[in-house]
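Input chain follows. Return structure tokens only.
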Amino acid sequence: MVKLQPDEAVRRLLVADVARLATASAAAVPHIVAVTFAETGGRIYTAIDHKPKSSTRLTRLRNIEQNPSVSLLVDHYSPDWDALWWVRMDGRARVLESASAPGEAVRALRAKYPQYREASLDAPMIEIEPTRTTGWSYR
């Protein structure tokens, strides 16, 4: 079992297709949701796309407005436990209205996810400024 070096942890996180975004309300009520994401300029971006959702007033957006501390988690599970690993990136998040989302973030998301190439990304976007990255690998 080994703690991942920061550069290896970041590399594993950035090539992952999906992560779990953890937020907490002002009252410290946790909330976690699977997200797609991309990196540009040292920041992580996740779009609020137009897939069906139970509400347009998403808990993650409300939580970030109340408490900008977030964590992003990616992991790899295998029946061969020698291949297990996880990476967690903590950071400060903010909600960007679609008009203020950097063009580089939209381009990075579209480059990483073919589904976004034709999709409208005119909804809010979450920007995360990383503050700490940690990780672990079985080997």
